[in-house]
Design goal:
Layout (H helix, E strand, L loop, with lengths): L8 H9 L1 H10 L5 H15 L5 H6 L2 H9 L8 H19 L5 H4 L4 H9 L6 H15 L6 H4 L18 H19 L2
Helix pairs in contact: 1-2, 1-3, 2-3, 2-6, 5-6, 8-9
Length: about 190
């Protein structure tokens, strides 16, 4: 299956071939539209002139990296704070996974371990970890035993709750509608 989270072919192609880009896109997916967040890794790689590596990002001068993200169009509405978060994520991947983000899920014994590993990543809480594990399972076929249960509601088959369920423009619209309905329901409580 082809990743279609950015809804831009060149950005989605990068997400499909680069585990680091996919992790960074998920990290950026807060307080901005999903497509903008998942286009962010492509924008960063274009500005760097090549695909992202955890080693380069982790060792990049923090002020220069923040400036890179702030260039117009900005990668995120909060480029400075998100630059710091991306660098923290990259440094963690270098320290714990030898700079190879795919090791996070490559040998996870089960879904619980996968979610636990994702939750340990800087900028990833339980919800983001569950959504990302659902994305891995639903779209990339990375399905350690118990992955659906560990992903919680995001792992449900046929659901339209998160980026894990976005495979085209129609599913994106369905996820947006479900999120709006959830917000309305939360306000009614």
């Amino acid at each position: 299956m082809r990743i279609q989270l950015a809804q831009r072919s060149e950005a989605d192609e990068l997400l499909g071939r680069s585990p680091l880009a996919l992790l960074v896109g998920m990290l950026l997916d807060q307080q901005i539209p999903m497509e903008w967040a998942f286009t962010g890794p492509y924008t960063i790689s274009e500005r760097l002139g090549h695909d992202l590596t955890a080693e380069e990002i982790a060792s990049y001068d923090p002020e220069a990296f923040a400036a890179l993200l702030a260039e117009k169009p900005a990668v995120h509405r909060y480029p400075k704070s998100m630059a710091a978060r991306i660098q923290a994520l990259a440094a963690y991947i270098v320290e714990h996974y030898d700079g190879r983000p795919e090791k996070i899920w490559a040998d996870a014994a089960d879904g619980q371990e996968l979610v636990k590993r994702l939750m340990a990543l800087p900028g990833y809480g339980k919800q983001k970890a569950q959504i990302f594990s659902a994305l891995l399972g639903k779209q990339l076929g990375i399905q350690p035993p118990g992955w659906r249960e560990a992903a919680g509601l995001y792992g449900e088959e046929g659901s339209y709750r998160s980026v894990a369920d976005v495979v085209d423009a129609d599913s994106l619209a369905r996820v947006r509608a479900a999120k709006q309905e959830a917000k309305r329901a939360a306000k009614g409580q």
